[in-house]
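Methods — Computational structure assignment.
A single polypeptide chain was analysed. Its primary sequence is given first, followed by the predicted tertiary structure written as structure tokens.
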Amino acid sequence: MLINPYNGCRNDCFCCYAKALPGYFQLFRKKGVVTVFRDFDRSISTQLDSLNVASCGYLSPVTDPFQSINAAYGLSERIIRVFVERNVPIEFITKCRVPDQVLELMEGQHHSFCQFSLFTDREELRQALMKEGATTDELFWEMARCRRVGLPVVCRIDPIVPGVTDAKRDLERIVRRAQGSGAHHVIASVMDVPLQIKGDIFGHLRRMFGHGLGYDLERLYVEKIGGSLHARIDYRKRLFDFLRNCCERIGTGFALCMEYELVEGMPVGLNGEFMNTHNCEGIDIPVYVREDSIFKPAADCQGACLHCNRPDCGIDDLAMASSPDKKKSFSLGDYRRWSRELAALDC
């Protein structure tokens, strides 16, 4: 269940695809203003209380929930509390330090987990790629801190920047440091370039690393999928093959994030070829259903909808193994429909 409490992000990663999104994201891109939604946690509370079925909260898919502005508003902590008080699992993805209150809230919820995203473990290089966020050493320390309270930890090398952060020795060092800090799983992607901000991305890299790199990237980024340019598929597959083998040697799971190849003109996900776990995050989280005032895992649900043929949760839409055409994004309206269907079954 996707949650974006802030539109815009003061981490200001040079290649952030959110800068190509419409609406308030353009206010951040052009003027540096982060939009904050008043009482957003109360809206989420009302939405959750209208449902009889829920899945894991995702905080947040577009901008960092713990970016510096959160210290003033605390929306992320308040949203996490809304989920945990109802016993609905929630995860976060961050490049920042994690507030103490977050771990105090999440450690009691069985299926909640943490994801940490980094460009590199070389601090001087990180500073050339983003404006704010935690140092590389702080991020590994945060991984260990989360693991100590019992939360599963995912390390995201997301994205890898060709010619800048793609050295194999550096990638393997990150995987080893992440595992040593408590991460059980690694997710990777190669930087894609939204056409709307192509000039900004390549321009930043030229200024930081020289015109030669910009020229090389222009030749590498020749595959257009949707509204973005992607690095050549042979480059990406070689990199993903190396990372999967590296993770398996070291003993962590591996998956990709939003990586596709064109097959007969249609985008096909690469996780079927490279992922070695059931789910992208390396943890299977069941669907939750309401019992009185709180939610509990649906009976016998294994939390692997893409592999499910028999929906023990009672929701046919989520049994996706036998019907590839069902693999889609769902909206709040779908959750409300499922809630009505489950209520009718109880009657």
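Note: The chain has a mean pLDDT of 94.
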